[in-house]
Specification:
Strand order of the largest sheet: 2-1-3-4-5
Radius of gyration: 20 Å
Helix content: 40-55%
Enzyme class: transferase
Distance between the termini: 32 Å
Protein name: Glutamine--fructose-6-phosphate aminotransferase [isomerizing]
Shape: globular
Largest sheet: 5 strands, parallel
Bound molecules: 6-O-phosphono-beta-D-glucopyranose
Order of helices and strands: HHHEHEHEHEHEHHHHEHEEHEEH
Structural class: alpha/beta
GO biological process, one term: carbohydrate metabolic process
Main location: cytoplasm
EC number: 2.6.1.16
Number of strands: 10
Number of helices: 14
Length: about 375
Amino acid sequence: EKDGYDTFMEKEIHDQPHAVADTLLGRTDAAGQLILDELRIDPEELKSITKIIVLACGTSAYAGMVAKYAIEHWCRIPVEVELSHEFRYRDPIIDPNTLVVSISQSGETMDTLMAVRYAKEQGARTVSICNTNGSTIPRESDAVLYTHAGPEIAVASTKAFLAQITAAYLLGLYLAQLNKKLYSQAIKDILAQLAEIPAKIQTVLDQADQVKELARSMKDTGSVLFLGRNVGYPVALEGALKLKELAYIHAEGFAAGELKHGPIALIDEGQPVFVVVPSPMDRHSLHAKVVSNIQEVRARGAKTIVVAEQGDEDVKQYAETTFYVPETLPMLMPLLTTVPLQIFALELASAKGYDVDQPRNLAKSVTVE
Ligand code: BG6
């Protein structure tokens, strides 16, 4: 059942082209219109949504952060992302025009379930993005958008994450289509780019050896930092989380712009820093800003490991190591840039002899609050 891989985690990382492709499958009609009939919320009702709150925990919450960037950009609807356990115990402002989107691989995470119940009680519409058919959270939600990653066995999430991001993009595009916030041609163009993602993930997987070699050489590292910006920020957080979960190494992800406001104090000789570099095509020119962050940490002795888009030659001169991913739309980059970080954590943990499928102290789905 591991398909010849040593671990479920490795298999699941390699399943990712399918996880994304299957999540996209059957969700457009011949004319290239998105059809999300399974959502089961009256489109008229969805049109009246004035605010979205995304609720999730762990890796799923980082998928939620990507969702925020995409939905706000494409739909112009304000999106908040909150950890389910924090949401439930403040006084969140919810009304019937609030759409609560929960994201959960298992559909059983108690913190998220309680938050969804609470949101429903307060009158919100609830949509569940979930990987497990018939599980509790989708059953208790008004609507569900399933991710089709297939069963995820390894405790730490990989393929479900990419599938959740994919589903969030579909939801964002669907809302943009309903509210006419994007031209239908623009939606088609984004969908066409999404359709190319599975093959591009495969390209990244085919270059895994370079990442693995670096991971083995860093087996005795005590701490690793991850920087990212815009949609690269949740990717940095996820890269750090994978390393904590699998390799028990202290790791932290930061928004690159925050570096000068504190974290730069951590940098000294030999500190490894991963930098998820925005596309050179990013409309806010964040690329140049992140390149100068790389220079800043490097000047203070950091060992810089860069994940950048193919063709981005600027970054190479400042990086100890550069991993390239194929070109795509800036918004879709997380589906590619996450992959080398997953492979890195997996290989480093394996080099330390750890059980990557069942890391210590963790459970696949936490069904207590
Ligand atoms: C944790 C898992 O307990 O729950 C993580 O170890 C996961 O991998 C998180 O991201 C949230 O789980 P779910 O099923 O709600 O996505």
